[in-house]
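Box S1 | Example of a co-folding query
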Amino acid sequence: MFNRVAVSGLGGILRPTIHRTWKPLPCSVCLAKRWSSVCSERKYFITTPIFYVNAQPHIGHLHSALLADASHRFQFLKYKNGLKKTLFSTGTDEHGLKVQQSAANKGVHPLEFCNEISQKFRNLFDAANIGYTHYVRTVEERHVNAVHHFFQTIVDRGHIYQGAYSGWYCISDEAYLTDVQVKEITLQSGIKQFISIESGHPVEWNSEENYMFRLSGFQEDLKYWLKDDCRVQPKRFLEELRKWLEDDLKDLSVSRPKDRVSWGISVPNDENHNIYVWVDALVNYLTVAGFPNLTSWPPDVQVLGKDILRFHGIYWPALLMAADLEPPNKLLCHSHWTVDGQKMSKSIGNIVCPYNCIEAYSSDGLRYFLLREGTPHSDNNWSDVRVARLLNAELANSLGNLLNRCTAPSLNPSQEFPSLNLQYLQNMSAAGKELIELVHNLPKEVENHYDNFNFYRAVDVIMTVVHSANNFVQEEKPWELKTLTDRTKLDSILRITLETVRVVGIALLPITPILANKLLNSIGVMQQNRYWECIENVFSKANEKYLSSSFKLGSRTKLFTKLKV
Ligand code: MSP
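Box S1 (continued) | Returned holo structure for 5'-O-[(L-methionyl)-sulphamoyl]adenosine
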């Protein structure tokens, strides 16, 4: 294939020297370590990508937002009142050719079109308990101002020049692609068509005058930024970025002529060009932080899907460096949801609608499945049957039964918290010893998984404890302990099981907030005792205060209604 991508600099500005004030963190510095010291002004700044309004929300979008939400919730749990400020941003990406065309097809003004879909994303996040603190839309005035200011800053710092650009343009991905990123296919109709190899979307050849960003000048800075092994998680995505940086970076076209893309933000002092939608979109992270009067910067974590890794792992840090701003501390990149092994797409008609799922499985049911099954490093397959089976087995049966067993009036007629007999604890069965050890280890292990965004592993640890507790009850057969002399043993069994339920309830708060709170309410754990520190050193004297002695058990809470399979 011939190489038709040509970039010629017309601006004639000398390549600027980069004056760098941002200081990369040493390799060992990851979030958990940075925060381990006692610090009264702890903050947390996490972002999701902003979502395109040209399509209806689906479970893949929700997955991006859920990862950020679970992490944000965990910070509250862990740092209690020590967390002074958090910023959790999400929103919608509303400019560009795709939106312009979709609105035109519907015969409505682009803003009207955007208002409707942006609200749908907001409604979905509210329905799924995504506790964002900031919602940003790229059509807002504060964002337009931030984008203008940002663009002018990089112009003033000498990183922009005007150039003639030719290349394959992919409207769906809103990106120029090089020859190696496209291939020719023959459609069923016999017509030949070039498509993006990565996304499969059609591309078309374009030549235009553009403003160009000197991305090529940041190659070494980017390599340096990516030296930190904690910078991008999981490791395979960090490696992918490092590999891309082995080839020479090309400068990036950062504007579009208005006669082609009219729905966008103008280049400052040029009425004929709009700013490239990806530059516009990326600046949303600065908008929410108050740019140009930044209150928090940089973000601690930015969550994104694997399809937008290049934008966040190369273009974004380089743009920030050009503006003399610190790049993000960490990127969390996740893989995608497929349906029956296929990519979700409107044309195939296999989009999984999150609203229908919330109706069928409840918001916590959907949250549980997505976080339990969603492994960031590899794609995951959605199947309705699998959802129902998993939720029935783990939430309705294992966890629901455990709660019912330890609160049942038949075993505990007084409905009070029984006490733990130390002698019993010392002479426990193998099943009991195993449970005690697992519960002891849970906080450290789950904390580690939460800190590393491995929510699926955190749930795995929690469920292992639940299974072990059910096994313990099964082996000890408390229903056979009927005599007065059996009472001490019975009380101890119930106490251990109740403590386990308390630990599990607190540990599940970031994953299934409604269900976990229901669980904790049903055993009377007060609001002020729902923090991480309350599950450390379980079964110790000091921990007795977390189970209120005046609380009457036995409200017979139905934790999760079984689904029809
Ligand atoms: N608007 C851009 C992002 C700009 S951020 C400055 C965009 N929007 S998107 O709506 O297409 O995608 C938003 C997020 O949803 C991305 O993280 C993307 O990876 C994620 N997902 C889209 N489809 C997905 C799946 N099938 N599965 C999981 N996540 C998916 O890109």
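Residues 1-19, 24-40 have pLDDT under 50 and may be disordered. The first strand starts at residue 7 and ends at 9.
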